[in-house]
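Is this the right way to post structure tokens for a design question? Let me know if I should format differently. Anyway, here goes:
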């Protein structure tokens, strides 16, 4: 079972926020975050860029050496993407999920079982 708790929540100028979660899965611990965009986009939104920076900052503080970026195209792929990525990743790595749209992001957060988001 996947379980995630908010490690840190960052407020943005527009009143929104981004979270970095401490996610556990199959006895392994990861730092995770997500945002909306596509790999083909020249520039990501401020919110997505802030989430990615926040994850990298927390991962650096924790001494995590690797960060994986995973693109999640559909809501239906969210669970499969999380499961396969975290199964293949090593304990104590950072994973950023780039979601195709806000509906995919909400589904991904639900699959992470993110508490306190």
């Amino acid at each position: 079972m996947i379980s995630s708790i908010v490690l840190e929540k960052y407020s943005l100028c527009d009143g929104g926020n981004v979270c970095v979660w401490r996610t556990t899965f199959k006895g392994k611990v990861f730092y995770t975050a997500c945002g909306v965009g596509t790999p083909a986009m020249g520039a990501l939104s401020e919110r997505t860029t802030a989430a990615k920076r926040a994850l990298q900052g927390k991962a650096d503080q924790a001494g995590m050496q690797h960060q994986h970026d995973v693109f999640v195209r559909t809501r239906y792929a969210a669970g499969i993407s999380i499961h396969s990525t975290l199964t293949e990743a090593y304990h104590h790595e950072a994973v950023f999920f780039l979601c195709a749209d806000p509906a995919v992001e909400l589904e991904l957060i639900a699959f992470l079982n993110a508490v306190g988001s």
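Format looks fine. Someone answered above. Worth noting: The chain has a mean pLDDT of 91. The radius of gyration is 13 Å.
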